Amino acid sequence: MNSLSYSDLHGQVSSDIDAEIAAALESLGPSSLAVRKSISGLLAHQQMKYPLSVLPLLVHGAETSTPGPAVFLSAVHVLWWTSACYLDDLADGHGAHTPDGLGADEALLASILSGQALPIRVVQAQSVPDSVRNALTGEIVNCWIDAVEGQLRDLRGDSENASRDAVVAAYRGKSGAPFGMITAMAAILADAGTERIELWREFGDVFGILWQLFNDQEDLLSGRDEDLLNGTVTYLLACALEETTPDSRTRVAELGVAARSSAQARAELRALLLAPAVLRRFEKDLTAFRDEAHRVLDELDGDEAYLPALRQLADQAAGMYLT
C-alpha cells in the first residue's frame, strides 16, 4: 500500500465515520428524539474545517497496518471536538452562534452530551475486552479534566505577566490533552503496550500544541481577530511581551485589554504581534515543537504507509504563515 495524505484517507473513510455517529445517535432510541435532534443540529453547525478525525486511524494503521478498527474512535474525536469548540465559543463570548432550530440552552445541553455521554456510549458498545473498554472510557473522562484545566488557565490569563511557558501549559490542556487522548486510545485499541501508548500520547500532546499555534496564526490571517477581541493571551502575545523592553510590557498588556472594544487598539496590537523580532521568536519555537513531534514519530517507527501522513500533519501545523 502506498502512503496516503491525511485528506486522502479522510475521503476514503468519511462516510464510515458519519455512519458510526449516525448509529450512535440511533442507538439512543425513540425515547430520546429531542436529544438526537439537538446533537444532530450541533454536529451540522460545528463543521470541522480540517479532517483531523483520521488521526486515530493513522495511529492504528501505523501500529497494525489496518486503520479500519479505529473508525469508532474517529467518531469519538468528532463528537468530542464538536462539544469542545461550541463550549469554547461560549466561553469566549464572541461568535457562538446558536445552531439553526435550537435554543441557546438546547445547544448547551447537546454540547455536554456530545462531548461526554455519547463518546462513552460509543466506546461501551464496542466488542473489545473489558480491560480495553475500561481504559478507553478512562481516557475520555481524564481528558475532560485536563482540557477544562487548560481552558480555565486560558480564561484567567494575565497578559502583563504572561510567559511562553504559561501559555504552553494552557495549550497542553485545552488542545494537547484531547489529541493525546485520541492517539493514546488508538494505541490502546491496537494493543501497543504501555511504552508505545505513552509515546503516542506524547505525539498527540505536542501535535495539539502545534495545532493551537496553527489556529492562532489562522485567526490573524483570516481577519477574524477573535483572539484580540477576546483578550486571549496567545503564544504570539507572550512572544511579543518577552521580546519587548520591561518598560513596554505594560503598554502591550494595556493594548491587549483595550483591543476587546477598540479597533485602533487591535490594529496597534496586531502590528506589535507581527514585528520581525516577535515572528522570529515564534518561528523558532514552532520549529522546536515540530522537531519534537518528528522525534517521537521516529522513535515509534511503524508502518510507513501511515507515518508520512502523521509527519505531514505535524509539518502543516508547524508552518510559519504570518509575515
Give a written overview of the molecule:
The structure is a single chain. It contains 14 helices and no strands. The protein has a single domain, classed as Orthogonal Bundle (Farnesyl Diphosphate Synthase), CATH 1.10.600.10. With 323 residues, the protein is mainly α. It is 75% helix and 0% strand. The model has no long low-confidence stretch (mean pLDDT 93).
TL;DR?
By secondary structure, this protein is mainly alpha-helical. It has helices at 6-26, 33-45, 55-64, 71-92, 104-124, 130-155, 164-189, 194-222, 226-230, 235-243, 246-258, 263-273, 276-300, 307-317.
- Number of DSSP strand runs: 0
H/I helix tally: 14
> Average pLDDT across residues?
93
Low-confidence parts lasting 5 or more residues at pLDDT below 50?
none
Q: Would you tell me which CATH topology applies?
A: Farnesyl Diphosphate Synthase
Q: What sort of overall outline do the alpha carbons produce when their principal axes are compared?
A: globular
Keywords:
323 residues; mainly alpha; Farnesyl Diphosphate Synthase; 75% helix; globular
Strand-helix topology:
Elements: H1 6-26, H2 33-45, H3 55-64, H4 71-92, H5 104-124, H6 130-155, H7 164-189, H8 194-222, H9 226-230, H10 235-243, H11 246-258, H12 263-273, H13 276-300, H14 307-317
